[in-house]
């Protein structure tokens, strides 16, 4: 009886291995047919020429935050001053707030002045140009393994600055320009989706959320042009597989109800 039980267990194990192997092979074939990458070589994005690549422009933007040390400490740059104001405003749960409603009058006056500085204008121009390019590929050497460089910490600050700029634009009555600023930011940030690094995707989702929170402040605005609303709907729903983007759907639904179903 013991040997019969052992034989039955072995036979069952062999049969299950065969069945699971067949099912696994079929699943892999189905995934392959759908174009899902299954190997490391397939996951790595192909190199992109600079003419089509947003990465060099984003690097230029990041480099603007890196000031070379000097013997005599210089006055803060416009970027540093603007970042300091943004960081000094946070929500009750500790999140940095880009909605200028909660800023002091002095901070709003200073922020409005800083946005018009040549330094911030140059930053926003770089980001706008980058958002119009086809890809964002840092053309990394994937043989470096754990030594692959991460996105710099100032990447999130760039999107806080974009959201703050949109807040200034909306509060001054330039609602359409505010929506265009958010749309450009979403387009730019979405280009990170093909980089197979977990920390990059965390940065991407965090920066999406920064822009989403500002967009939610505009969702009930009455003077939104139909074309702008449609462009935002299309952009917001590009990547439904991203769970963080589910936060976007109520915003898109608001736009759809007002501009598509009316």
Which key terms come to mind for this protein?
mainly alpha; 262 residues; elongated
Structural class computed from helices and strand pairing: mainly alpha
Q: Quaternary state, please?
A: single chain
What proportion of the residues form beta strands (DSSP E)?
under 5%
- What is the helical fraction, as a range of percent? 55-70%
Mean pLDDT: 81
Low-pLDDT residue intervals, each spanning 5 or more residues: none
| Distance linking N and C termini | 75 Å
Number of helices: 11
Tertiary shape? elongated
The succession of helices and strands, N to C, reads HHHHHHHHHHH
Report the sheet with the most strands, covering strand number, pairing sense and barrel closure: none
Number of strands: 0
Please tell me how large the radius of gyration is. Answer: 24 Å
Description:
It is a single chain. Helix content is 60%, strand content 0%. It is mainly α and 262 residues long. α6 packs across α8 (175-190) and α10 (226-236) packs antiparallel against α11. The mean pLDDT is 81.
SSE map:
Elements: H1 2-33, H2 40-43, H3 55-63, H4 78-87, H5 105-115, H6 118-131, H7 154-171, H8 175-190, H9 198-218, H10 226-236, H11 249-260
Helix pairs in contact: 3-6, 4-5, 6-8, 7-8, 7-9, 8-9, 8-10, 10-11
